Amino acid sequence: MTDSLISSAYSQALEVIASVEPRIAEATRQELTDQRGSLKLIASENYASPAVLLTMGTWFSDKYAEGTVGHRFYAGCQNVDTVEALAAEHARELFGAPYAYVQPHSGIDANLVAFWSILANRVETPYLQKLQAKNVNELTEADWETLRHEFGNQRLLGMSLDAGGHLTHGFRPNISGKMFHQQQYGTDPETGLLDYDVVAAKAREFKPLVLVAGYSAYPRRVNFAKMREIADEVGAVLMVDMAHFAGLVAGKVFTGDEDPVPHAHITTTTTHKSLRGPRGGMVLAQEEFAADVDRGCPMVLGGPLSHVMAAKAVAFAEARQPSFQTYAQKVADNAKSLAEGFLTRGANLVTGGTDNHIVLVDVSGFGLTGRQAESALLDAGVVTNRNSVPADPNGAWYTSGVRLGTPALTTRGFGHDEFDTVAELIVDVLSNTQAGTTKAGDPSEASYVLGDGVADRVTSRSAEMLDKHPLYPGLVLS
Ligand SMILES: *Cc1c(COP(=O)(O)O)cnc(C)c1O
């Protein structure tokens, strides 16, 4: 697609939007300007291609299509069937998965589908036996009571939040921490690394129905073959949530034991992080779970977002190109360069480095909380997010860490040297920021004082790099 086509597509779309609500057109233009002008280091974000973005803006949004391909509860779904079947086919080919369910609206929704599929598949309740024999309407209140009891008392073992796990892996504020008896495994207090022997010992003692692997803030690779061995030993289902690193799996950076798809019973993911697709989720599964996963809508999902499924198909087609493997390898190489950049300048990293797309900086050495560091960096045009470090003394709100990721800037074309410069700029900001005080003069976990001239110095150095690697280079809005 040529630059002028993309430019006129968006310029005209914005004109149409402006004719109804100009402030939305204006905010949309401003968002592009802001994204172009900042160093986006949020590890869960990326920039989808214009083809993916344009695919989302169509009349597929207007169609209801509850059900599955060829088996819908609404009439007139022939084109949605084409879209969903193609997205699923691309997903199966891309990940080598026996089965793919592309309806989940987000990563959290994909996990809900997985949890309910596992319960339906593995919990041997009288309810399920009766359900197979009878119409649901014939079940008695006592049957439902049994169901609630059995489904509500299963066990889940996941990675703890402060070790890098996700809140859907059994953390109390999420429903996964309420519907399951949950326990968590952490990382080694010395090295910050996963210790498989500790995971195995916990699993033997706790005997979970579901063993969850996967993370949002762990800067290392996971051996999923070992995780499966642990699951098999205790009779658990291995569920891997690859929401963060699906792009590294699709791009064949994680292969063999590091590729979750052949080892997990069920693999869930987002499609918008390192995978660089539209905002959404997906479930991949072994055949034995396919029928249960297919019931995701209406079990826990609303009607499928057909326009987003169409964009997933486009994104997966992109990810099947050899150029995506080059991209994924650069994401990992750039993370190494970023980590080296911090280490040579004396900063502390959780686990001492990275071998995926994430770098987790422990900012306590700068005398700052994660909250102060995040805000000071934002003042200098560096967009990050604060994150707990293992056994974080500042808790989950203020935290002691800043999480960085390379997928977005790698999409813009940043390479080895630029990521070293990014580390230099971040260290410049953090070492020239002082923790502030409250109005009463007490130490504050939130306020901070940025040194004179730092923001200007960092902003102009970033602007040079951002100008050299423009976002959507040919896109000029009229
Ligand atoms: C981002 C993330 C999710 C949630 O994705 P949403 O699309 O925001 O719902 C789930 N699991 C993990 C591991 C994640 O990193």
From TrEMBL:
Principal localisation: cytoplasm
Keyword annotations from UniProtKB, A to Z: Amino-acid biosynthesis, Cytoplasm, Methyltransferase, One-carbon metabolism, Pyridoxal phosphate, Transferase
GO CC aspect terms: cytosol
One Gene Ontology term of the molecular function aspect: pyridoxal phosphate binding
Sites marked Plays an important role in substrate specificity: 272
Cofactor requirement: pyridoxal 5'-phosphate
Name under which the protein is recorded: Serine hydroxymethyltransferase
Organism: Nocardioides zhouii
